[in-house]
Amino acid sequence: xxxxxxxxxxxxxxxxxxxxxxxxxxxxxxxxxxxxxxxxxxxxxxxxxxxxxxxxxxxxxxxxxxxxxxxxxxxxxxxxxxxxxxxxxxxxxxxxxxxxxxxxxxxxxxxxxxxxxxxxxxxxxxxxxxxxxxxxxxxxxxxxxxxxxxxxxxxxxxxxxxxxxxxxxxxxxxxxxxxxxxxxxxxxxxxxxxxxxxxxxxxxxxxxxxxxxxxxxxxxxxxxxxxxxxxxxxxxxxxxxxxxxxxxxxxxxxxxxxxxxxxxxxxxxxxxxxxxxxxxxxxxxxxxxxxxxxxxxxxxxxxxxxxxxxxxxxxxxxxxxxxxxxxxxxxxxxxxxxxxxxxxxxxxxxxxxxxxxxxxxxxxxxxxxxxxxxxxxxxxxxx
Length: 383
Ligand code: MRU
Description:
Elements (H helix, E strand, L loop, with lengths): L6 E2 L11 E4 L6 E5 L10 E4 L2 H9 L6 H17 L4 H9 L6 H19 L4 H37 L5 E5 L14 H10 L3 E7 L6 H12 L3 E5 L4 H6 L5 E4 L3 E3 L4 E4 L2 H10 L4 E4 L5 E2 L16 H4 E2 L13 E2 L12 E4 L6 E4 L2 E3 L4 H12 L8
Parallel strand pairs: 5-6, 5-8, 6-7, 8-11, 9-12, 11-16
Antiparallel strand pairs: 1-7, 2-3, 3-4, 9-10, 10-15, 13-14, 16-17
Helix pairs in contact: 1-3, 2-3, 2-4, 2-5, 3-4, 4-5, 5-6
This protein binds 5-S-methyl-1-O-phosphono-5-thio-D-ribulose.
The site of 5-S-methyl-1-O-phosphono-5-thio-D-ribulose (MRU) has 18 residues, from helix 2 and strand 10.
């Protein structure tokens, strides 16, 4: 495909605003989020002073993406504790804010366990709050470290599967620094390939209906000076048919014990296309996204989102309020099918790349072994 259709990112500024940060102004602790509903039009921060504001930010996707949801959930528990709210109530509300990304409940559980352990040892609520905050900070750091290691393993795998470099990688949704304590999951692998001069092109699916690819991945690719091209989701088939895709790299919201992968809706059709065209379909996710308690893909709860996200076009600069308010693109009263995620069966996944290494072929035994190794002392310890 001719490169005149391609856009090379020119904005090489590093991200100035982190996706999430904890602050302690004199009025009391707050959690500050980069409001992702406003990108790329505006870089606006959202300040949460309590867990219910954070729950709303999670539901509206101001903060989103599996690893970041885990970090946010942990900080949310710390915030509730530090502000003197009921920690169990806050933890339950946070863990239930979105159902599919397992990292959210993992993060919440971890901070709540730290809080409870401190109280069980005779600490007062203020000490419990400090313990919860320390747990959140630890998870944040671990996610950043996991990101570096996933990028290393993922790049090595790409080089092995595609000798000669010049990788043309298709990605879906958004998996970069906006979803992570570090540089992300799948996007971090593409970024690593870019930095060593082996990424020829990043194909970015726009990711209907909320455009995480167009609004967020293109924003991150441009900031990093990567050669990227945006396509509508339904153009992917012709791109494969034209032989323009060497590998698909995506993230995950939950990986069941049998290796089924829940990720942004539209991932499964890419896996089918990849199999038909003999292209590797690679999932990049931290061990915290593997959920051995969910036996298989059919047991994964897929979040259903409001129909107006499909029947109306939302302007990127307008905050998603949950009440519609966009420009109608379908007759009034049209019903919409709007699952946020789909599930790809393990037989369509070439490899799962984690910070602990690569699982390929994807089997229940290999995943169980990986999680056991992580819990015995790797990055997933203490989950
Ligand atoms: O609905 P979102 O925007 O939270 O969905 C995010 C995704 O599907 C990502 O691909 C997934 O969380 C993996 S991010 C590392």
